[in-house]
Amino acid sequence: MFFKSKKKEEKKKLLYRENIRVNCKPDTQEAVIRQVGEMLVNGGYVDTPYVEAMLEREKSFSTFMGNGLALPHGVEEAKKEIKASGIAVMTFPEGTDWGGNTVKVVIGIAGVGEEHLQILSVIADKMLDEAAAEQLAQGDVDTVYQILAGEE
Fold first, then answer.
1. CA 22 to chain centre
2. Is 73 labeled as catalytic in the residue annotation?
């Protein structure tokens, strides 16, 4: 045969256990955004400039969502830096300061096209449930993964 068949590339999952860090110690907001952004870079979801775009977004508009949740993501101009939709999670059982608010769960988001809106919606729905929000903040990697990915 003269033509090689192209293998269909496996679609990247939105969340992998490697992109979940639990029991993090409080840190500055900038340091946390950089850490969660680096997790997205290392996971192959975004190119490095996306991390700076996440910091830019925070300067213009806080990503604090209430109920102990922050959802840092890049500014619109950084869409070109996104290779695949994905999330990275850090939990702070003791809380960490987020512009004067206490945050226990930080979920960095990279969404291809309009997928970021869908991702935000799913996360917001889960965090409206106070029991689920507390489980996310206090849980181990498997608990966080199960709540956000819906998989065992």
1. 13
2. yes
